[in-house]
Q: What sequence folds into this?
């Protein structure tokens, strides 16, 4: 299979496939006489794995480590669990921050709905933001 065929099969772009080859995540067979790289079933499996791992929030560096650990120790699962647990905590923290921001925005909008629009006066750029909430 060629790059475009492989990309289509796993639902990614040819550019992404070429990038994964360049950084060593996949290592297709030698180029044919016309310069095309030849991809085989294991390459497709690795690409599908990359897509699934990215869908769970893994970075390409983390995916490379999973591949290395799989090739050497054969057991990347502890690392996978560790990353997901850490990432889950990070996502929870970001979600809390976003919910707090959403709440502040709702409060501001409720307050601002009843205030008049005012032109900048040299002291304030936008009175809605510059003036303290009453």
A:
């Amino acid at each position: 299979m060629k790059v475009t065929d492989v990309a289509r099969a796993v639902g990614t772009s040819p550019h992404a496939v070429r990038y994964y080859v360049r950084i060593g995540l996949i290592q297709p067979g030698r180029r044919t006489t016309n310069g095309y790289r030849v991809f085989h079933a294991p390459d497709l499996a690795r690409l599908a794995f990359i897509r699934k791992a990215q869908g769970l929030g893994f970075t390409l560096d983390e995916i490379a480590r999973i591949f290395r650990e799989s090739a050497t120790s054969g057991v990347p699962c502890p690392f996978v669990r560790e990353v997901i647990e850490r990432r889950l905590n990070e996502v929870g923290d970001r979600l809390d921050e976003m919910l707090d921001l959403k709440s502040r925005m709702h409060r501001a909008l409720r307050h601002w709905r009843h205030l008049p629009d005012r032109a900048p006066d040299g002291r304030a750029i936008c009175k809605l933001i510059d003036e303290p909430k009453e």
User: Anything to note?
Assistant: Helices lie at 3-10, 14-22, 41-55, 60-72, 77-112, 127-130. The longest strand covers residues 29-31. The two ends are 67 Å apart (CA to CA). Residues 66 and 77 are 8 Å apart (CA to CA).
